[in-house]
User: Fold these one by one.
Assistant:
Number 1:
Amino acid sequence: MTEHLHHDFTLSTGFKTPILIERYFVVNDQTDSSLFTDQIAKYNPHIIGDATNYLFVSESLKSAITYSGNSVSILSDYDTHAIIRSEAGKNWHEFVMEMLNMHLYGIENLALIPGTIGAAPVQNIGAYGKEVADTILSVHCLNVSTGEKYVFSKDECQFSYRSSIFKKHDYSNLLITHVDFILSKVQSPKADYPDVETFFIEKQITNPSSHDIAQAIIAIRRIKLPDPQIIGNAGSFFKNPVISIETFQSLLLEYPTLPSYPVDDLNVKIPAGWLIDNSGYKGFRYKGAGVHDKQALVLINSHNATGRDIYELSLLIQHNIHQRFGIMLEPEVNILL
Ligand code: EPU
């Protein structure tokens, strides 16, 4: 037993389905690299951050690892921008608000997203017209089997919609330790997402600042999305599917109100929430699990659900959406069977 290793540790999760971890390693910048080679390598632990975007289907896990350091520092300060380094264990929303207080801009549209700094690049978190990739300069990681350290430039991270190199199997033993961000001192508020536009029209705010944007997004998220502290959930359960324009046009014949967002000359993205909602699932309950009644893309722990209840509900929805629209929804949440 070392201070870095907890036996039979019960971790709470975004879905509020607690998971018992037989060996839970918690490391930081001071952790001796021999711990990785001598102990951690033997157990090949899952890297789990703060477990907000995970669905654990079984109730226990052999081993897991998380990075706990959470300090933030200014690496460089220029007239127009600053370079900020945050350790991976820092809470994402706290970071967003601290940067706004320091008049550093670019991540305000991502306010109130649950999870840590370390999880942000893995799935390239995004909301209300912005993705974290827009502000990332580099990502620092270490190999949990060898303790070796690596730095990935933004290009090397291969960011795309809700994805990055860190989601690929070959990179699954890389623990993110620090992320470097480039944040602007000049505000360029992005308020053209439909929900955000409507919010400012209703409030009669014509030239919103970045601070207004953060407040608007916090208010919108509180209305639409369940608070994971109260109702277990992991935000959107599925990704919005990208389909060919041909497939979209044939679907439009049957579903003329199906929305779409442009992707490129050949493809469009369509809202999975619309597909699920229009299949009658909003507010649906299955065992202890359910579909949120204000946003059909969000699966919830409605009353004492197990991870398996939520997983079975997701399979049911996936199957029925495939039968109805010919589209296979891909989970956005990390599922551990
Ligand atoms: N819609 C419905 N019914 C629903 C939900 C959505 O018809 O129950 C349709 C509506 O047409 C709506 C459209 O879907 O206009 C889009 O809905 P919304 O604006 O709520 O966004 P989303 O596509 O469902 C995505 C992200 C969210 C992010 C919002 C805002 C994904 C998988 N999800 O959701 O991210 O907050 O946009 O940018 O891309 C998350 O990743 O966990 C997450 C919450």
Number 2:
Amino acid sequence: MKFNVLFAAAVVTAGFMASASAQTTMKISISVAQNSHQGVAIDTFAREVEKRTAGRYKIQPFYSGSLGGERESIEAVQLGTQELTFSSTGPVPNFVPEARILDIPFLFRDKAHARGVLDGAIGQDMLVKFEAKGFKALAWGENGVRHMTNSKRAVNSPDDLKGLKMRTMENPVHVAAYKGFGIVPTPMAFPEVFTALQQGTVDGQENPLSVIMAAKFDQVQKHLTLTGHVYSPAIFLMSKGAFDKLSAADKTAFLEAAKEGAKAGRARVDEDDAKGVAELRSKGMSVVENVDKAKFVSTLGPVYADFEKQFGKAEIDKIRNAK
Ligand code: EAX
């Protein structure tokens, strides 16, 4: 009798412990600060995963490149040593070359065009391409429309870019295009950029207003020009191994949570774009708001001819002409 009671208690305790330990914690990282569009995206994702799995999955966010830059984080996700990351497409072509086409300058008319393409057939087909490389791409998010900053001079026309030493992402499409502007590109991981600007290792960099504000680049850069030269997609990447282990219902929960995260991140990008110029001016930056876009586009003529050869004019036009 006594033995049976003890035995029953042990069974109950073991059962309780099993359910208590049934919470799985997963890491997600970004290279920028928490107070940013990307912070909003991953915090929303974390909250939605917990809610939609009744707390069985807990997402632990890491900000400011504390787990490494974007390339390192994507590598870790590919290896499966980190479950998730939210990254710009900067280093993505090094892993999934098909995604390069999305990084072509002046490809998208505006954010609405880009969002439509990424959420539509072209973007969704592209997400599938990540699977052969060890990733489950949960959803496209947004980094924003990129603009140029530097510490040397006001940039009013493409001629003003000639000879500027600028940090670029580790992205072959960007590097090729920026050479076409006459810029001297210096690819570098994001966590090193502030110091490189501060020490004058490079003259400038290019990023969306959201990133410029979150990284406080106004402290180390005088000039900003709204070049809007390229749209910068972002993406929720999960280790394929970790995703495949989820139940069908939990897979849906993660996919839906990523969509919610993307939506919240995009809304923050819109807020940042609306207030960015005023805020950066108030912090001392001098801003050129209007440039002759056509001049910047035509400067890239020869580079574009090369992109059309590489990617196929029809493929580029398919994106360009998407409504
Ligand atoms: O993802 O590396 C970059 O310039 C990115 O835009 C930034 O880390 C945000």
